[in-house]
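Example protein was shown:

_____
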Amino acid sequence: MAGLTRIQIVTEICDVVGKNLGATAPSGALLQNRVVNYLNWAQRRIANHYGFYELQQISETPVTVTSLKTYPLESGTSNLGLSRVSSINSIRLIDGENSRKLIFWHYRKFDKWYPRPENFATGRPRIYTRWGNSLVFFKIPNAVYSMHIRYGQYANNLTSDEQLHDFGEDKDQLLLAAGVLETYLALEEYGDAKIWYELFLGKLKDAVMADIDEDWEPEAEPHGEGPSYQSGEPWLDPYIGGSLQGYPE
């Protein structure tokens, strides 16, 4: 559903903080123009809290490159073609009956067991890690594979008065509350900012509860000591023979 336009929300924010559209900010800039920045910050604050349905995307165009380990998310050589990425939710490697969901490892775990993925034979990737705005795969791909990537986005910046925000009509009040909060913070009116922060959190909680449908399936890992390195140069044998224990090749 449509929701409010940028100028409508900016007008509401100025009304709440007791300023008219022609008022000036402490710097002397037109407050209306400054509020546009605060509103865009508000959109990012919301997206950082929770990935709502309207900001979830799926891309079926990314492909691996033979013998290439690292892939930028948005731009650069062999990038995955995603846009405004806030989070990677899942990656499926498409290979006919051998298709698989890749397993995410935190970069510390990835570096512990595979400090140099190039030491291993290439193959169908099984795990991935994210570092900055790039993904790293292991095994390094041995062919061109299609990937289906589910990911969360940040909302488009509001760049024109008649532009609609990406959150939909049901989140007009949430975006307004976040915009007022950012404006009070920028104006250093911290008493009012505290009040509006509580209002923002309440509206955010309501929006999340209306949106959430978590399918939570916890998987316990076994207790006990992990395998130890077999030499004083773990990069030569980082996972005791190189097999990804517990997972099929």
Summary: Strands lie at 56-59, 70-72, 85-94, 100-101, 103-104, 127-131, 134-138, 146-153.
